[in-house]
Amino acid sequence: MAEYHGLFAMVDYCKPLYPQNDHSGFDRIINLQIWPDLHEDFCASPLGWSDYVYGLFPEGKDINRQIVLNSPAIVTPPELRSWVLCFPTGYSQDKKIDPRDVITAAHQVANGRPVLCAGKAAHGMAEFETIEYMCAYIRDANEVVTINTSTSILASALRKSWVHIADSPKHDFTHPNQRRVERKF
Q: Domain spans of the chain?
């Protein structure tokens, strides 16, 4: 999806294909996007998220699954280093969660520190102007709380640890550096 192409500014090992139907000049194209075209197939499969995604191409079973991003060059506000950055919405949760419940969990993690909720402006939250800004904020916040697979994956590439509110095992991205909080709501 074109909205994620800003991530390619932070990697030097691949580049985006845009428009999606222009395959000229590429030796190989690996599309790991599940939503929306493969979502029903994924839900019907017995595989969890990572195994399904990496099973989309032959070498996927042997690949190192740690996402690697170069640190964005963006400078964030210094006060961010004492804030908790919370991403209370997502698309892929098996059991949809009320963003207020995620925000409540973030405030528990924050233990009195300020919480910045990020997402879509239409939902009344801070919206980053680019994905590079979002990555810089994920990198620099004192703590990050995720519910969404995509923000959790970005956190795995940009942080030593973060808090992830666990979804169903099938739809969830897991990582050894996550501090997982099981849903209580």
A: 2-62, 78-181
